[in-house]
UniProtKB/TrEMBL annotation:
<dbReference type="InterPro" id="IPR036263">
    <property type="entry name" value="Chorismate_II_sf"/>
</dbReference>
<dbReference type="InterPro" id="IPR036979">
    <property type="entry name" value="CM_dom_sf"/>
</dbReference>
<dbReference type="InterPro" id="IPR051331">
    <property type="entry name" value="Chorismate_mutase-related"/>
</dbReference>
<keyword id="KW-0413">Isomerase</keyword>
<feature type="domain" description="Chorismate mutase">
    <location>
        <begin position="3"/>
        <end position="94"/>
    </location>
</feature>
<dbReference type="InterPro" id="IPR010951">
    <property type="entry name" value="CM_bact"/>
</dbReference>
<dbReference type="InterPro" id="IPR002701">
    <property type="entry name" value="CM_II_prokaryot"/>
</dbReference>
<protein>
    <recommendedName>
        <fullName>chorismate mutase</fullName>
        <ecNumber>5.4.99.5</ecNumber>
    </recommendedName>
</protein>
<dbReference type="Pfam" id="PF01817">
    <property type="entry name" value="CM_2"/>
</dbReference>
<dbReference type="GO" id="GO:0004106">
    <property type="term" value="F:chorismate mutase activity"/>
</dbReference>
Length: 96
């Protein structure tokens, strides 16, 4: 049996593909909402970044990662990447 003919591996991969698709849709929805936040912040003359909220969110997501048996370092890196992208969008909405 090879990788391409292994039915168990195919089942695992199908599940992974479904999860990947769900992640993309969830991220798209998250960015639609943060886009609206960025536009609101720009109209309201609010800064694009909120370091206090970021700190709280990172701590909250690290705790959730521990509960979910996911490496909290990984979850923080992923969230930091997302936050940095959101801030970039908020700066763009503000015209920076």
């Amino acid at each position: 049996m090879t990788e391409s003919t292994d039915p168990q591996l195919a089942t695992f991969r199908k599940s992974i593909d479904n999860i990947d698709a769900a992640l993309i849709h969830i991220l798209a929805e998250r960015f639609r909402i943060t886009q609206a936040v960025g536009e609101y912040k720009a109209k309201s003359a609010l800064p694009p970044a909120d370091p206090a909220r970021e700190t709280k969110q990172i701590a909250r997501l690290r705790a959730l990662a521990v509960e979910a048996d996911l490496d909290p370092e990984f979850s923080e890196k992923l969230l930091r990447f997302i936050i940095d992208e959101v801030i970039r969008h908020h700066r763009k909405a503000r015209g920076d």
